[in-house]
Model the fold of this input.
Amino acid sequence: MFNFLKRFWQRLSTPSKAGVGFVLALGFVGGIMFWGAFNMGMEATNTEEFCSGCHAPIVEEIQSTIHYSNRSGVRAICSDCHVPHDWTDKLIRKVQASKEVFAHLIGTIDTPAKFEARRGHLAAREWDRLKNNNSQECRNCHEFEYMDFTVQRSRSQAQHSTALADGEKTCVDCHKGIAHQLPDMSGIEGWQ
Amino acid sequence: MKNIIKSCIFILATALVSQTYADDEMTGYSNGGVESLRGSTELYEVSDPAMMKNHQADRKPYEPQFVFQPPLIPHQVRNYEVDSKVNKCLSCHSFKNARDSGAPRISVTHFESREGLALADVSPRRYFCLQCHVPQVDADPLVENDFEKVESLQ
Done:
């Protein structure tokens, strides 16, 4: 038995040159293919088509808003706001999304009525996420550093130069429902 | 085969007849040369749309033209949600929020029931702001008129 193990180990520790080359090449090519496929998968699950596969009614809601249709034609798609851009955070969010795939399979929000009933919960989750990362997905485009208060309206100026500048508030504290309809807002700060 | 040909001819004939009938019907409703607000466009034609009006961003509100005129809205209201769940307008103009936001407060008339009794909150019949208040635009009157403000507003 011991001899067998010894021979096996020798074989492993002194492989033929061709074998080493083959294994390395296989690892290299396999690595590239895996990485490519992995990133392609990440990208494919970031497209609007993919999102609207399940969330079609919500995707429709954005179409009347400024983030879809505006004078200059720059627009945001779902993943611009709902998936972090930074790679590690993105991966974490994607893993969390597996729970949402489960919810899709058991049909948690598969009718408009069910979705409407859960809208508050879903919105609150997203508000929390944005509050915890200081509205990072807003700031990916709307960078505070480059905001010119002189071309903002007086009310925006007043809020941005104080509460936002201090870090006391973050974008989503005031800008809720900018791309979707809102849930029942009674009891939420700043709303009637 | 014969049957198929027969039914094909029948379908074609029906289509032809109904088409001619439809054409007759169309011309039957012509405007008879009368010009109206939509110009002299025939009723079954689509008239050229008027140019879109640009909303005026944050200007002084236009002066009221008559007593009890609902004030015009001097700002954008794009995507302002007003429904059973939420009222975006009230998040600045309600009694509670007007002081902080610096926006004009809705008047007490919004708290009156149809019978004139005071309610604890905005009356449902006054809840849908955009029914009476509209954003102000720089638009010419649709028809020429010699309307004048009452003396007290002049």
In short: Residues 22 and 28 of chain B are 10 Å apart (CA to CA). The interface with chain A takes residues 57-58, 75, 78-79, 81, 83, 85-88, 90-91, 94, 96-97, 101-102 of chain B (CB under 8 Å). The longest helix of chain B spans residues 2-28. The mean pLDDT of chain B is 82.
